[in-house]
Amino acid sequence: MEIWISNEQEKVDLAPDHEALIQRVAERALELAGAHLGPNVSVSITLVDDEAITDLNRDHRGLASPTDVLSFSQLEGEEMGDLPEGEPLPLGDIVISLERCLAQAADYGHSFERELGFLTAHGMLHLLGWDHQTPDEEAAMMAKTEEILGGLGLSR
Question: Which residue, 42, 81, 82, 123, shows the most beta carbons closer than 10 Å to its own?
Answer without folding.
Answer: 123
